[in-house]
Design a protein that fits this description.
Chain B: One of its GO terms (molecular function) is transmembrane transporter activity. Chain B: The chain crosses the membrane at residues 30-47, 78-97, 104-124, 154-172, 193-220, 226-246, 253-272, 278-296. The complex is a heterotetramer. Chain A is 34% helix and 23% strand. By secondary structure, chain A is of the alpha/beta class. Chain A folds into three domains: 6-239, P-loop containing nucleotide triphosphate hydrolases (Rossmann fold); 247-332 and 417-504, 3-Layer(aba) Sandwich (Rossmann fold); 346-415, no CATH class. In chain A, the strands form five sheets. A six-stranded mixed beta sheet of chain A has the order 6-7-8-3-9-10, sandwiched between helices. In chain A, strands 17-20-21-14-22-23 form a six-stranded mixed beta sheet, sandwiched between helices. In chain A, β7 (162-166), α5 (174-191) and β8 form a beta-alpha-beta unit. The longest helix of chain A has 18 residues, at 174-191. Chain B is an all-alpha fold. In chain B, α2 crosses α11. By secondary structure, chain C is mostly helical. Chain C has one domain (48-325): ABC transporter involved in vitamin B12 uptake, BtuC (Orthogonal Bundle). Chain C is built from 13 helices and four strands. Chain C has helices spanning 23-42, 49-74, 83-96, 101-126, 131-150, 163-166, 175-193, 195-205, 207-212, 217-243, 254-265, 276-295, 300-325, and strands at residues 155-156, 168-170, 173-174, 245-246. In chain C, β2 (168-170) and β3 (173-174) form a beta hairpin. In chain C, α3 (83-96) crosses α10. Chain C is globular, with a radius of gyration of 20 Å. The chains are: A alpha/beta, B mainly alpha, C mainly alpha, D alpha/beta. Chains in contact: A-B, A-C, B-C, B-D, C-D. The interface between B and C is large, with 48 and 51 residues. The structure holds adenosine-5'-triphosphate (ATP) (2 copies) and magnesium ion (MG) (2 copies).
């Protein structure tokens, strides 16, 4: 594979943002028709590399050649040659799905007739699992996962020779991921498309890629055939040391005390009906289900975000049904959104401000914010979430995606809630940081007896972080079991097929 | 939008009942004249809002282009018209380039241009109003077709239709909506943001200049004071017509409705001879009703209606 | 060229003067001082107490209105267009109440501004209506009420000018400038240091995130309109105190002057960015510029053209300087 | 006599936001009612384009006559031609357009702005004489909104007359005060800073603007009682300032007179009287000596 001349070849790419060196001299070669994995910690420079290759970021130094031609840097490359599925989605909310897919396509003329493209776009959408989405639907009506799939469909529909996908699976469930991967494999085999995929889920890397490149601190660490790599070797290359995964951690659930969370007749008509659920202090519960299973809505309803929810919610034996987010916070329930950029963090505010933003009362006296208290609390939170305290005055938007996620978590944990609700807690977080976060969450459960409920589409995460797993199918619970009693297969079975077949 | 229609029809009914002349051809003609002036400026402004920007210089452009039209068009009206339109397009391009190159809010750049233009208007006027002695042309533009349509209103309606169609079926139109809807995503996904922004500003300058030139021809006069109230009204009309300040939302047809709401209101109030405070209060009240219908109260209404 | 990163969660007042987000504000501040010094050197009688007072009188009224407006902008609601009519009504009320003494009349006009601001705040913040149209509607309604109330007539103060209208704490420093200073300092502290101010700014950077974070967003939106109403009313009252007259022409240009001062000062229209001292700087920039043009007796059209160019040049300089840092 | 009774007249005028207009509108309503004329008042925000459409509307209503306060002296000629073509008699008030076109209207009644400016110049010369000042040195002008017909005429009348009567008085500077006290204060302050003691007199085209000039003068430490301060209109604020001695004089233009003349003009027309093309209201010069006799306080409604 390495003997052929590379289709794309980059040399000595350097990029710094202010004092932050995102890339410090990065080389990469991509062969025609290979699937190439790009791995590295949060902030390693993966997205920066991809954006430089696409011409969306101008590097400070370096060279780029595609198909034997020197490509000018910092000017968007022809999307029919090289196309990117961006980490921060580039879906345009007020355009229809078909317009979004056709965005950047070269054969759209000044007079834009959609007719000739409809069949092709329909096919592409169907292939990635969007059979149910009408072509003329406005993209703003799509869920996050559907937008991700539209973005992928766009990348595919352009038929580019090089397709770069930056964490395309972070918001997707396993079923959806499988479909996407099937399409990618077909692109490779039928069109000899060169595909680069970034993912923090190592199983995906091993399942899909031919070769892997690892970056660390903006530098090239290794490139190897995937077959020659082990999971441990890959992790070591990414973060420089081992990370323990896969063991079942002991539960810190307190028994013999009143339940922390007790739900009675909790339902949102037409969406979900939860069983009379009870969760102990210190317990970590994963809610698992596909989109539409109601598992994520159940989580949101507990934070008072779903008007129309019926039933009662008790915390530590007292009724505390929240009707709005402030009521939830007042009751000791905190919520972390899955949509980090739109609702999770204040991208344009400093990291420190973000971290204390939900506990302004605690860092102020008589209505006055105390700078020293802010610094102290922000530093403490930054340290416990492995955020570099030196960057506290910088805006969150300057952080890599994974580090932004840590800020989003840190600001909710700052509330010191009794019940912490997490929607996709480590979406886009690298494997090293992820185990740091799980350890931190576990410590909260142990030390403060905090109860955690999280919704995740990432089965690895579910298995690694939870004490107890509750699966959902079409609005109803399928199974409520201790972590030790389930494995990936059984969970997948539950959420894909529901209770009928469990019984069978 | 349905509620805007209802508002419009309700006002039409009320004024028809209150004054038998509301539907008289002469009155509809004058309605068309106001629609034309405000409509052109609002249409241009709406395009800049659609692309996620805001052109404050439209009102001042009306004054300047009128003055150019008459100063250069005394002997040959086409020369004047061409000069006025070229000037409008040029200033629009300048607005667009400044906004794109400097990457600052267009409110700031067009604010500067607006002040500059109003000074330029006074300078052009040179302390005297500028009048037009080509009464043939003026009369031609004051002609009426089917006793309700004037050349100005026909031109305006045609432009509204053309812009509406262009937004729907051209790549540029798609890119304008994309650039306004989500600028960063539009850039990342390969839309031609620069040409979208530039075209919107050029159109805005051009339409405002056309409004000014046509006004000058119909009045046979141009002055630096013309167009003073237009900007605010145009913004009201555009927002009322469903254009969102955040960009990407709304279409020319909606803007036309917004413009009509304001024009019918003021036409009707003028017709029934409402006193100044009443005119102001009713203008405020109608706008307030329109926003309430879009805000939470309207949503409650719709929800409770849906519940029954 | 990199700006020193500091461990304070918010940059202090002196750090990062040339950071991309601050560069325009800094450029305007420097330009204001430079213009003033240049005028002192080149224009006879420029640095006299009476001329400085004249600059400060003009700046104080527009500035106070712009500070109130800035709270609306920074909290994420773009701008308000009801300042002019509020100021006009307040000028009438101020004169009508002048029998109550300066403080009484001032409080009366402020109360009027607060009530109008509160109503707009409720419509925008609680009823979630379009912010711009709401203020345009309010402007029309307030003007209508004021015209009905006054019959369109000018009300005249009896007796001589009060300390508020004409008094100075020092030669060249009128009381109105002192009030402006106090308003700026209080508003700056409120926005930068108070919990409410933090909530207001965070709401401006991202309304959805602020709501999900449980911040008291409705409250700060209502508050911002109250501040805008109060600022406009205060401006109207100060104008009335100066001239001893109140009528519908007061505040005719206030909306645009305030928006211009704020934008030129470097407050971002998209919310969350910018400070009250920027508003003050923008106000002074335009006031000094206007004064220089008037003092040189430039023709009106030349004044306008220079002003427009100055705005463009300042913005361009700010943009180019901040570009380099990126 | 009495032929005007029951006649339908549409009056197109200016909004109440200008005080003069408000008084005028109130008066004409009252006087027309007293004369038995069925008067409909339609106002606009000093917007020539809006007024043009209002004229179209008025034509559609086929009144017995249209009384027009033209917002812009010449912008409305095409509209006036339409009125003429529709066969509706047109009478003008307050603003007199170019008289070359006077076959378009029956009569203009109201102020004579050029004469007002000229009277102001005469009054200024008188002030110099009265105060024992040498007619030498400089004066400044604070004008109305640039580009308006009134502003153009008043400035013309003042400048030409002053040049004739006192050739040694030079006009140092002129700035618009936009019929507004605050704007006038700033404009005058700038000129006072620049010219200081060179300024011996000020002509502000309206008393409400003179009020701004007086404030600026006091702030600049100048004594207005020692200067030739001439306003216009004899408005309430002007009366106050004349009585206190800060303002030397003003030139009367009364909205009450104008409204009276306008109704008279209508009455004359309907009664088939012989009518002159122009019927000007008196513009007497007013000083402290005659202010009480000449200037009637403006009626409250
Ligand atoms: N616009 C920017 N301004 C300042 N710093 C930036 C900017 N974009 C990226 N960085 C910094 O550059 C470094 C590399 O970021 P990049 O987004 O490439 O990381 P990544 O490898 O994609 O991480 P993740 O896995 O979290 O997405 C990070 O330290 C990030 O904070
Ligand atoms: N936890 C974090 N919080 C904030 N910023 C981070 C964090 N981790 C990394 N970054 C930023 O991302 C950039 C690159 O990140 P990366 O993690 O690759 O650096 P690193 O491995 O710590 O490198 P080095 O050891 O050279 O400092 C760094 O400049 C750093 O400022
Ligand atoms: Mg990334
Ligand atoms: Mg590291």
């Amino acid at each position: 594979m390495t003997t052929r001349a590379p289709l794309l070849s980059a040399r000595g790419l350097k990029k710094s943002y202010g004092g932050v060196q995102a890339l410090r001299g990065m080389d990469i070669d991509l062969a025609e028709g290979e699937i190439h994995g790009l791995c590295g910690e949060n902030g390693a420079g993966k997205s920066t590399l991809v954006k430089i290759l696409g011409g969306f970021v101008t590097p400070d130094d370096g060279e780029l050649g595609i198909a034997g031609q020197i490509v000018p840097l910092g000017r968007p490359v022809d999307p029919a040659l090289l196309s990117i599925v961006h980490q921060e989605l580039s879906i345009i909310p007020h355009l229809s799905v078909i317009d979004n897919v056709m965005m950047g396509a070269r054969d759209v003329r000044a007079l834009y007739r959609r007719g000739p493209f409809r069949a092709h776009v329909r096919q592409t959408l169907d292939a990635v699992g969007l059979q149910h989405v009408p072509l003329d639907l406005l993209a703003e009506k799509l869920t996050l996962a559907e937008r991700q799939l539209v973005e992928i469909a766009r990348g595919i529909a352009r038929g580019a020779r090089v397709l770069l996908l930056d964490e395309p699976t972070a918001t997707l469930s396993d079923g959806e991921i499988e479909k996407v991967f099937a399409v990618l494999r077909r692109l490779k085999s039928e069109n000899a498309t060169t595909i680069v995929i970034i993912s923090h889920r190592l199983n995906e890397i091993f399942a899909l890629t031919d070769r892997v490149t690892v970056l660390r601190s903006g530098r090239h660490i290794l490139t190897a055939d995937t077959a020659d790599l082990t999971s441990d070797a890959l992790v070591r290359a990414m973060i420089g040391h081992e990370v323990k995964t896969g063991e079942i951690a002991p539960s810190h659930a307190r028994v013999g005390v009143a339940p922390r969370l007790a739900l009675k007749d909790w339902s949102l008509p037409g969406r979900f009906a939860a069983p009379d659920l009870s969760v102990q202090p210190g317990e970590i519960v994963a809610l698992v289900g596909q989109l539409g299973s109601g598992a994520d809505m159940l989580l949101e309803s507990l934070a008072g975000l779903k008007p129309g929810t019926r039933g009662t919610l008790s915390l530590d034996g007292t009724e505390a049904t929240p009707r709005s987010i402030p009521e939830a916070y007042a009751a000791g329930i905190a919520y972390v959104s899955e949509d980090r950029a739109a609702r999770g963090v204040f991208l344009d505010a400093p990291i420190g401000t973000n971290l204390v933003s939900q506990v302004l009362g605690r860092v102020s006296r008589a209505g006055r914010v105390l700078p020293s208290a802010v610094t102290a609390l922000a530093t403490e939170l930054a340290q416990s979430f492995a955020i570099d305290p030196a960057r506290l005055p910088h805006e969150v938007s300057t952080l890599s995606g994974g580090n932004q996620q840590k800020v989003s978590l840190g600001k909710a944990v700052a509330l010191g809630p009794r019940l912490l609700l997490l929607n996709e807690p480590t979406r886009g977080v690298d494997i090293g940081a992820r185990s740091e976060i799980y350890a931190r969450l576990r410590a909260l459960a142990e030390r403060d007896a905090m109860t955690l409920l999280f919704y995740s589409t990432d089965l690895e995460e579910v298995l690694e972080a939870s004490d107890r797993v509750i699966t959902f199918y079409r609005g109803a619970m399928v199974r409520d079991a201790a972590r030790a009693e389930v494995d990936a297969d059984s969970i997948l079975h539950d959420i894909l097929h529901g209770p009928d077949e469990v019984a069978a | 939008m349905l509620l805007r229609w209802l508002l419009l029809i309700a006002m039409g009914l009320i004024f028809t009942l209150a004054n038998s002349y509301f539907l008289a051809p002469g009155n509809l003609y004058s309605l068309g004249e106001s629609f034309s002036l405000l409509g052109l400026v609002a249409l241009g402004l709406a395009l800049t809002m659609l692309v996620g920007e805001f052109d404050l210089s439209g009102g001042a452009m009306v004054a300047v282009s009128g003055l150019i039209m008459l100063k250069l068009g005394e002997s040959n009206a086409f020369v004047g018209l061409a000069a006025a339109l070229a000037f409008g397009a040029g200033v629009g391009a300048l607005n667009g380039l400044l906004t794109l190159r400097l990457q600052v809010s267009s409110l700031v750049t067009t604010l500067g241009v607006m002040i500059l233009l109003s000074g330029f208007a006074v300078w052009l006027e040179g302390g005297q109003g500028v009048s037009f002695s080509n009464y043939d042309l003026t009369d031609a533009f004051n002609a009426s077709w089917l006793s309700v349509l004037s050349p100005r209103s026909v031109i305006t309606i045609a432009l509204f239709a053309a812009v509406g169609v262009a937004l729907a079926i051209t790549r540029l139109g798609r890119d304008i909506i994309a650039a306004g809807s989500h600028r960063k995503a539009a850039t990342m996904s390969g839309a031609n943001v620069a040409s979208a922004v530039l075209s919107a500003f050029i159109a805005s300058g051009l339409f405002a200049a056309l409004a000014g030139a046509l006004l000058a021809i119909t009045l046979g006069r141009a002055s630096s004071t013309f167009g003073a109230n237009l900007l605010l009204q145009a913004a009201s009309a555009a927002i009322l017509g469903g254009i969102a300040l955040s960009g990407g939302v709304g279409r020319p047809f909606g803007v036309a409705i917004g413009v009509l709401v304001l024009c019918v209101l003021n036409n009707g109030l003028g017709l029934i001879g409402a006193s100044s405070p009443v005119v102001m209060l009713l203008n405020g009240a109608v706008l307030l009703v329109a926003v309430l219908v879009d805000g939470a109260p309207g949503q409650w209404l719709r929800r409770s209606r849906a519940a029954h | 060229m990199s700006t020193q990163s500091r461990s304070a969660p918010l940059p202090g007042p002196l750090s990062g003067l040339f950071a991309p987000a601050r560069v325009q504000a800094t450029v305007i501040q420097i330009a204001t001082v430079a213009m003033f010094l240049l005028a002192c050197l080149t224009v006879d009688n420029y640095a006299t107490a009476s001329n400085i007072a004249s600059i400060l009188y003009a700046a104080s009224t527009v500035g106070i209105a712009a500070v109130g407006l800035a709270s609306v902008t920074i909290s994420g609601n773009l701008f308000a267009l009801s300042l002019g009519s509020t100021a006009a009504f307040a000028s009438i009320i101020y004169i009508q109440l002048s029998g109550l003494g300066v403080i009484g009349a001032l409080l009366g006009s402020l109360a009027l501004g607060v009530v109008f601001g509160l109503i707009q705040g409720i419509v925008v913040g609680l009823l979630r209506c379009n912010a711009i149209i709401t203020t345009i509607a309010a402007s029309s309604l307030i003007a209508g009420l004021a015209t009905a109330f006054s019959g369109g007539r000018t009300v005249l103060a009896t007796g001589g000018p009060s300390w508020l209208g004409n008094g100075a704490i020092l030669p060249g420093i009128p009381w109105q400038a002192v009030i402006f200073l106090v308003v700026v300092v209080v508003a700056e502290l409120l926005l930068q240091r108070s919990r409410t101010g933090w909530e207001l700014r965070l709401r401006g950077t991202n309304p959805a995130a602020a709501e999900l974070a449980g911040l008291r967003t409705r409250r700060v939106v209502v508050l911002s309109y109250v501040l805008a109403g109060a600022g406009a009313a205060m401006a109207g009252a100060l104008i009335a105190a100066q001239s001893g007259t109140g009528n519908m022409r007061v505040g005719a240009d206030l909306d645009f002057s305030a928006i211009a001062a704020m934008l030129v000062g470097g407050v971002a229209i998209s919310g969350g960015r910018g400070r009250i001292i920027d508003v003050a700087a923008g106000t002074l920039f335009l006031a000094v510029l206007t004064n220089i043009l008037l003092v040189n007796n430039f023709a009106y059209e030349v004044q306008l053209m220079i002003k427009g160019l100055a705005v463009l040049v300042a913005v361009t300089a700010g943009a180019l300087l901040s570009r380099k840092k990126r | 006599e009495g032929a005007q009774e029951g006649k339908k007249v549409i009056f197109l005028g200016a909004d109440d936001i200008c005080e003069y207009c408000a008084v005028y509108n109130g008066q004409i309503r009252k006087l027309a009612a007293a004369a038995g004329i069925d008067l409909e008042v339609v106002t606009n925000k000093f917007d020539a384009a809006q007024q043009a459409t209002q004229i179209d509307q008025a034509i559609a209503k086929k009144p017995d006559a249209i009384l027009l306060w033209t917002i812009d002296g010449t912008a409305l000629f095409p509209s006036m031609r339409k009125v003429k073509r529709a066969g509706i008699p047109l009478l003008l008030t307050d603003v007199q357009p170019d008289q070359k076109m006077d076959d378009l209207w029956v009569q203009y009644s109201g102020g004579n702005y050029e004469e007002q400016g000229a009277k102001a110049a005469q009054l200024m010369v008188k002030a110099f004489d009265d105060k024992g000042m040498e007619k030498k040195g400089g004066v400044i002008l604070i004008t109305g909104i640039i580009g308006q017909a009134q502003t153009i005429s008043m400035t013309k009348g003042f400048t030409e007359t002053l040049a004739k009567l006192a050739p040694d008085l030079t006009i140092l500077g002129s700035q618009p005060g936009n019929w507004d006290t605050g704007t006038s204060t700033q404009a005058a302050a700038g000129l006072f800073t620049k010219y200081g003691d060179q300024i011996k007199g000020v002509y502000a085209a309206e008393d409400i603007m003179m009020q701004g000039v007086l404030i600026a003068a006091e702030r600049a430490g100048m004594d207005p009682t020692k200067m030739a301060m001439i306003g216009g209109g004899c408005e309430p604020v002007g009366i106050q300032n004349i009585k206190s001695g800060k303002q030397y004089g003003t030139v009367l233009q009364s909205p009450v007179d104008e409204a009276t003349y306008a109704v008279q003009s209508l009455t004359d027309y309907f009664n088939g009287k012989e009518m002159a093309k122009s019927h000007y209201v008196p513009h007497p010069m007013v000083t402290a000596a005659n202010v009480d006799q000449v200037c009637k306080p403006w009626p409250k409604d």
